[in-house]
Design goal:
Blueprint: H1 2-18, E1 27-28, E2 31-32, H2 37-88, H3 92-110, H4 116-136, E3 139-142, E4 155-161, E5 170-175, E6 177-180, E7 183-186, E8 188-193
Parallel strand pairs: 4-8
Antiparallel strand pairs: 1-2, 3-6, 5-8, 6-7
Length: 196
């Protein structure tokens, strides 16, 4: 009898050893424990909710992208319009300043018998108007004085002449030059002193 009890006790120990004792987070000694259908349902709902949220976020980002793209296109089109208008009307300010000069010249030609003094006075007044128009539109004269050093960025030497001054200095100005806002429009035509 005792032997039978010992054999039964050994069977119970073997069965207990075969049955897993430790369960951690759905894993039992290396084997996955299957959950019931009720436990899986909340996981599917959560996954569906996450997918829905992600799709909504994708749609929101796509809308933002399309708006930004449209805004960029509008800015580009407005900039092109502004550039086109700037090219068309770039001389508008200068033209406004030149109209009174033209008016003065036309009025001078309408006089039937002008005197020399009246013509001279009219030309001087017209020249003042023209100079004011140039100054207003930043059209500046380049008129070097005699003895100034030749500046190839502003002066163009036409000839070299013997002179009692240093070499490569301006002797005479044949034609004034002009700049527009520090950009050379036309160089001054000058004669330059030869080396001694």
């Amino acid at each position: 009898m005792q032997e039978q009890e010992n054999q039964q006790a050994e069977k119970v120990e073997i069965q207990e050893a075969a049955t897993p004792e430790v369960q951690l987070d759905g894993v039992v000694q290396g084997e996955t424990v299957q959950t019931s259908a009720q436990d899986a349902a909340p996981v599917q709902e959560t996954a569906e909710q996450v997918i829905a949220k992600l799709e909504a976020k994708v749609q929101e980002l796509q809308d933002s992208f399309m708006r930004a793209k449209a805004e960029g296109e509008n800015i580009r089109r407005r900039a092109q319009d502004d550039i086109s208008k700037a090219h068309k009307f770039a001389i508008e300010g200068f033209a406004e300043a030149m109209v009174p000069v033209k008016d003065s010249l036309e009025m001078a030609l309408k006089i039937d018998t002008p005197s020399i003094e009246a013509l001279k006075e009219g030309v001087e007044m017209t020249l003042k108007q023209l100079s004011a128009a140039f100054e207003k539109n930043r059209l500046n004269e380049i008129s070097p004085a005699q003895g100034d050093k030749l500046d190839p960025m502003k002066h163009q030497a036409i000839s070299m002449v013997p002179a009692e001054q240093d070499a490569n200095t301006v002797v005479t100005v044949l034609q004034k030059g002009y700049t527009i806002a520090d950009r050379l429009l036309r160089p001054a035509l000058v004669t330059v002193a030869q080396g001694k």
